[in-house]
Design a protein that fits this description.
The chain is 28% helix and 19% strand. It is of the alpha/beta class and 346 residues long. The protein starts with 6 loop residues before the first strand and ends in a 6-residue tail after the last strand. Bound molecules: adenosine-5'-triphosphate and Isopentenyl phosphate.
């Protein structure tokens, strides 16, 4: 007989089974490519920030449980590389009961350059340069993904890479058409942490496209209903204009109506609606940058789920990851909280 604590989540008639999560999903995190890579230098990881973010993720996943010793799991290159004396250390080790989490990372300077040069996002897989670009994009983004999985494993997070192209994700006219959610559910139930990423995928209409990590997060949220979603990037949040502009104002709180319209609740500025916000996107960005992030975040808030956008590696991001802001005031926090309208705060 099934464990009564098992919670069926969103199994829709006619759609493929998505499985049953044995415990509620705490959070889905987007590790922005702009945060963990140097976005304007091809294939350059920002090692310091990646290390800090991985440590924050571990701290957040420990929840309020006892502080336990961390044993690094990246020992494929030898125990020393993982910071442990010997792999037999694991014989005596009880892996802590970590909060359930999914990590999705962006491509940053891995993948966007290759995709934009060859036009993978526009489709046409039969065209030789697009096919070659598809291959090059996947080589690039999966090599970043391996580095991220390694960094998480070094922090003792049981992370496993699940590249969308290889795990059943495809699109129709650039919208998610299929995704193997069952595999993700089973991975979470096994106590592992799925690591997905923005990827080059097959598209039923145009042959291929680039599926953004931000869009993947919305789909996962619809299916698996986490308690909250955190987007970590290289700026404190959404500003009323590009943050390089000295007059830019950080939008602290955005409320999303049932019909998808959103308005700025704090601070009270003139451009109080979505249309007033000015956004720039890097020329090589194939997925729409901050603009996509805001519209996906608003779609998530419409589902009744709080979203927090903030700068990776800061105290603000640690608080967001720990869930401290859930339903709480964000007056003393720097970032953008995107919430369903008419939800009373704690
Ligand atoms: N109005 C705005 N508010 C906030 N950021 C903005 C705005 N306009 C432009 N930006 C830019 O958006 C960038 C963050 O979006 P981007 O999509 O690059 O982040 P990411 O998710 O971390 O990266 P990736 O898409 O590679 O995963 C910032 O570097 C910032 O300069
Ligand atoms: C360019 C590729 C391969 C994926 C882009 O994903 P994103 O950085 O999350 O938008």
């Amino acid at each position: 007989m099934e464990d009564e604590s098992e919670r069926p989540i969103g199994s829709f008639e006619g759609s493929p089974p998505i499985g049953i999560l044995r415990r509620p999903l705490r959070c889905i995190v987007k590790l922005g490519g702009a945060a963990v890579t140097c976005k304007h230098e091809v294939e350059k990881i920002n090692e310091e920030d990646l290390g800090r973010v991985s440590s924050h993720l571990r701290q957040a996943m420990m929840g309020c449980g006892p502080v336990t010793e961390v044993l690094g799991m990246d020992w494929s290159r030898g125990a020393g590389a993982a910071g442990i004396d010997s792999i037999s250390d694991f014989n005596e080790y009880a892996i802590p009961n970590l909060e359930s989490l999914i990590i999705v990372h962006g491509a940053g300077s891995f993948g966007h350059f290759q995709a934009s040069k060859s036009g993978v996002h526009k489709g046409g897989l039969h065209v030789p340069i697009v096919k070659a670009g598809f291959v090059a994009t996947r080589i690039s983004v999966t090599s970043l993904s391996l580095a991220i999985v390694r960094a998480l494993a070094r922090e003792g997070i049981p992370a496993v890479g699940m590249p969308p192209f290889a795990c059943g994700w495809s699109t129709t006219e650039r919208n998610v058409a299929s995704a193997d959610i069952y595999q993700i559910t089973q991975t979470l139930n096994a106590g592992l942490v799925p690591v997905l990423h923005g990827d080059a995928v097959l598209d039923n209409q145009q042959g291929c496209t680039i599926l953004s990590g931000d869009v993947i997060i919305r789909h996962l949220t619809q299916q698996l209903r986490p308690e909250y979603v955190v987007f970590l990037t290289d700026v404190l949040g959404v500003y009323d204009r590009p943050p390089a502009n000295p007059k830019a104002v950080l939008l602290r709180e955005i409320a999303v109506e049932d019909d998808g319209r959103w308005s700025v609740m704090s601070p009270l500025i003139q451009q109080a609606t979505g249309e007033g916000v000015e956004i720039t996107v890097a020329a090589h960005d194939t997925t729409g940058g901050m603009e996509t992030k805001i519209s996906e975040a608003a779609a998530i808030a419409r589902l009744g789920i709080d979203v927090f956008i903030t700068k990776a590696g800061t105290d603000h991001s640690l608080r967001a990851l720990r869930g401290e802001l859930l339903g709480a005031s964000v007056d003393d926090w720097l970032g953008t909280a995107i919430r369903p309208a008419q939800r009373p705060l704690r």
